[in-house]
Design the sequence.
């Protein structure tokens, strides 16, 4: 069995899941993001228990899926390899604020600002399901990622 090899054949976008809980803002890169319902519009994000973002989403009861555009590799580096437990990943980065209070990143292909409606345990990850309360799509190609 080569589950890792097969999983790497699944093409996804790359996103930054952002959240504001109390005074703390944070974000993490995420490939495991999928639409799960038309009506109401629902999206799921799968977040490892160890991520700082995991607890912040539980505290905030909301999150935003920022859909990275081609060429935004600097944001993957900024949000995908360091933890917000010990660094401010937004330091020096301009951003807006969504309806839920979550940060909205500049220059993306779009975003889905979500209210958390349910959480499901899945191995070492939690699937957070959000109902989209605000969204925008821009005229940019999304970044894609195999695996
Ligand atoms: C391209 C890419 C995709 C990723 N996708 C996910 C994902 O879907 N779920 C997840 O839990 N972590 C994912 N990660 C790892 C987190 O982004 C990373 O561990 C991050 O540093 C967590 O930050 P935090 O501790 O501040 O929440 C991904 C990382 C990269 C570079």
Sequence:
């Amino acid at each position: 069995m080569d589950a890792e090899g097969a999983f790497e054949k699944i093409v996804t976008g790359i996103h930054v899941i952002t959240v504001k809980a109390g005074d703390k803002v944070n974000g993490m890169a995420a490939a495991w993001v999928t639409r799960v319902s038309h009506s109401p519009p629902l999206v799921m994000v799968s977040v490892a228990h160890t991520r700082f973002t995991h607890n912040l989403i539980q505290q905030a009861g909301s999150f935003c899926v920022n859909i990275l555009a081609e060429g935004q590799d600097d944001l993957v580096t900024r949000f995908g390899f360091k933890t917000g437990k010990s660094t401010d990943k937004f330091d020096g980065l301009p951003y807006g604020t969504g309806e839920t209070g979550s940060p909205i990143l500049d220059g993306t292909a779009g975003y889905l600002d979500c209210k958390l409606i349910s959480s499901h345990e899945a191995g070492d990850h939690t699937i957070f399901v959000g109902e989209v309360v605000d969204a925008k799509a821009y005229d940019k190609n999304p970044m894609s990622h195999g695996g």
Observations:
- The longest helix spans residues 52-60.
- The longest strand covers residues 110-122.
